[in-house]
Amino acid sequence: xxxxxxxxxxxxxxxxxxxxxxxxxxxxxxxxxxxxxxxxxxxxxxxxxxxxxxxxxxxxxxxxxxxxxxxxxxxxxxxxxxxxxxxxxxxxxxxxxxxxxxxxxxxxxxxxxxxxxxxxxxxxxxxxxxxxxxxxxxxxxxxxxxxxx
Length: 149
What we know:
Helices cover 28% and strands 24% of the residues. It is an alpha+beta fold. A hairpin with a 7-residue loop joins β3 (33-37) and β4 (45-51).
């Protein structure tokens, strides 16, 4: 099964964050999700939204995860708004596609302003990246195929 509850002894760094085992500043948290700043930002604003339950990566998502993905996107947009990002048309919300995930725990990247990302960030998170799938693309695949290819 692709989902497990985060455990205290889990070696996953994002499970450790979810279990309050690090000094990572949590910006927003609810029972299912939490948001914090990316340690290696790819834009002026770069936040990660993770699930408190361990889900391996975006390829582990199935149609029943659609509400979770929608809530992750909502939390990511909210973090950007809370941090004074005014132009929500100039953002990138999405997931790295394995094997290009740095941490094997589902995490949504919320970046802004997308138009000011440097060349390296454009390769990793930009519209022509082979490594990044937007929330819209992920939701379309989940709705039509029931999973992400």
